[in-house]
Amino acid sequence: METIYFYKMHGLGNDFVIFDQREGALASHGKKKHTFSKKDILNICDRNKGVGCDQVIIINEKSSQEVLIEFYNSNGEEIHACGNGSRCVANLLMKEKQLNEIQINTKERKLSCKRVDGDIISIDMGKPKFDWTEIPLKENPIVDNIKYHVDGLTLEQPYFVNVGNPHVIFFVEDINQYEIGRFGPLIETDQLFPEKVNVSIAQIISPNIISINVWERGAGRTLACGTAACAVAVAAITYHNCNNELEIELPGGKLDISYKMNKNIAMSGKTELSFEGRFEL
After folding, report:
1. Which domains does the chain have, with CATH numbers?
2. 3-state helix, strand and coil shares in percent for the chain, rounded to the nearest 5
3. pLDDT truncated to tens, each residue of the chain (281 aa)?
4. Exposed, middle or buried: residue 233 (CB in 10 Å: 0-12, 13-18, 19+)?
5. Of 31, 39, 106, 232, which is most buried, counting CB atoms within 10 Å of its CB?
6. Strand partners for 166
7. Helices (H), strands (E): how many in the chain?
8. What pathway does the UniProt record associate with this protein (predicted)?
9. CA distance 216 to 30
């Protein structure tokens, strides 16, 4: 058995177990770099027998001046984007380096982060992608033909957005009528999505407020999802004439999203360190 040290953090209840695998952090505990297996990830994420989380995040060194962060869903699969997780890591690193701005690298893109106030962290998520080949989808879809039926209710007229990972969004009159726990797994595994997909059911409350429920691919229902909030905001601004600055309400709290057509997405919200600990693998 090997003892590994970690941070437990969350953004609006979207929770993460973070392992710092940089040389300095490892040396402070007299440890060597650990290679995480899928079994390790599953054990860590297990809320009954492990630490419990939506995603595992690993901080690696890209160079002496830059970090590379990796994300793994609770099903053990690697993903390339996690907005709330990126904000948590940014807060951790900015406190360590006593900075108010920092850049972090994912395998998909470089992210610029800054401290707005206290533990409220803003992140530049880059530009969204809309082409069906970039989502990606199996084929160029006929949107009118895409319908999902559960318990006499239907989700239709989807919007597709990639913000570092694939999202499908459905706008409805009342999100409380649509059980994300029933629709989510059905849509996530649809053959239309070769890499599976994150599912959001959204309700436009006003031109600047949207409520959403999210089903994350590989993690299931979560209290919050930063990339889903970004994808919903982009779809609402692009196709529903919502304001360029939106408040996205999730079960765990709210995120502020700013987006102008053909520009980068900015997301800000609170992050929190829950505790530090160690785990045996």
Report:
1. 3-126+270-280 (3.10.310.10), 143-263 (3.10.310.10)
2. 20, 40, 35
3. 889 999 999 999 999 999 999 988 888 888 889 999 999 999 999 999 999 999 999 999 888 778 999 999 999 999 999 999 999 999 999 999 999 999 999 998 899 999 999 999 999 999 999 999 999 999 999 999 999 999 999 999 999 999 999 999 999 999 999 999 999 999 999 999 999 999 999 999 999 999 999 999 999 999 999 999 999 999 999 999 999 999 999 999 999 999 998 899 999 999 999 999 998 88
4. buried
5. 232
6. 162
7. 5, 19
8. Amino-acid biosynthesis; L-lysine biosynthesis via DAP pathway; DL-2,6-diaminopimelate from LL-2,6-diaminopimelate: step 1/1
9. 36
- Torsion sign over Cα 89, 91, 92, 96: positive
Alpha carbon distance 146, 208 (integer Å):
28
Residue whose token pair is 């987006």:
259
Residue listed under structure tokens 């995040």: 57
Residue 52 CB partners (closer than 8 Å, separation 6+): 15, 17, 45, 46
Known catalytic residues?
Answer: 82, 225
Q: Are 226 and 266 in contact (CB under 8 A)?
A: no
The candidate with the shortest Cα–Cα distance to 135, out of 159, 154, 171, is 159
Q: Whole-angstrom Cα distance, residue 222 to residue 156?
A: 22
